[in-house]
């Protein structure tokens, strides 16, 4: 397995400049990363710059808190896809999960999944595991599959901690093979990346993609 092809090369800092986005895209082309993951405001630019390349455009919705209304998230997703996004990483409604409002959570994911799939885009659901109990991680994983998500994802990278090997393994165990797992947040070297893959991660969201690939080639 070529690790570069499971990396979403990520830059989500609010202060990211156009120059930094252009550098991200250039690196993604050079290292043949699976995608770039950027905030919605940069989707159109990245889509244009990545035309005729292997690298897809991924963006984040309801980010980073997940507390937007369902209607806002659906609109955000459709708008991003129309501007060139191939994949949507949406933050689950964390407060609803904590409140046991599972029907509402599933309904939201289902509507966003439908909007994505009608437009040939994939949906990843960010659970923000560091704010959930193990039981809630399992429940959120199962809800996401039931609602039609293509991936479940560990973290935004903006909360109290990022990807955790045990959580990745729990997520993998909680869904069928139809749903993939993305680990993100705090994966800064090849050793940690490999631990996530071994635990069941199919995709990695990292800002240290270049360093991880270089490290993997030196082993």
UniProtKB/TrEMBL annotation:
The EC number of this protein is 4.1.2.4
InterPro entries given for it?
Answer: DeoC, DeoC/FbaB/LacD_aldolase, DeoC_typeI
Q: Which domain of life is it from?
A: Bacteria
Q: What class of enzyme is it?
A: lyase
Subcellular localization, per the record?
Cytoplasm
> Which positions are tagged coiled coil?
none
Its pathway is: Carbohydrate degradation; 2-deoxy-D-ribose 1-phosphate degradation; D-glyceraldehyde 3-phosphate and acetaldehyde from 2-deoxy-alpha-D-ribose 1-phosphate: step 2/2
Q: According to its UniProt record, which residues of this chain constitute the active site?
A: 89 (proton donor/acceptor), 153 (schiff-base intermediate with acetaldehyde), 182 (proton donor/acceptor)
Keyword Coiled coil on entry? no
| Keywords for the protein's UniProt record, in alphabetical order | Cytoplasm, Lyase, Schiff base
Q: Which reaction does it catalyse?
A: 2-deoxy-D-ribose 5-phosphate = D-glyceraldehyde 3-phosphate + acetaldehyde
Give a yes or no for keyword Cytoplasm in this entry: yes
> GO MF terms on file?
deoxyribose-phosphate aldolase activity
Question: What Pfam families is this protein classified in?
Answer: DeoC
The record's section on CDD domains has:
DeoC
Q: What does this protein do?
A: Catalyzes a reversible aldol reaction between acetaldehyde and D-glyceraldehyde 3-phosphate to generate 2-deoxy-D-ribose 5-phosphate.
Per the record, the similarity remark reads: Belongs to the DeoC/FbaB aldolase family. DeoC type 1 subfamily.
Q: What is this protein called?
A: Deoxyribose-phosphate aldolase
The gene it comes from is deoC
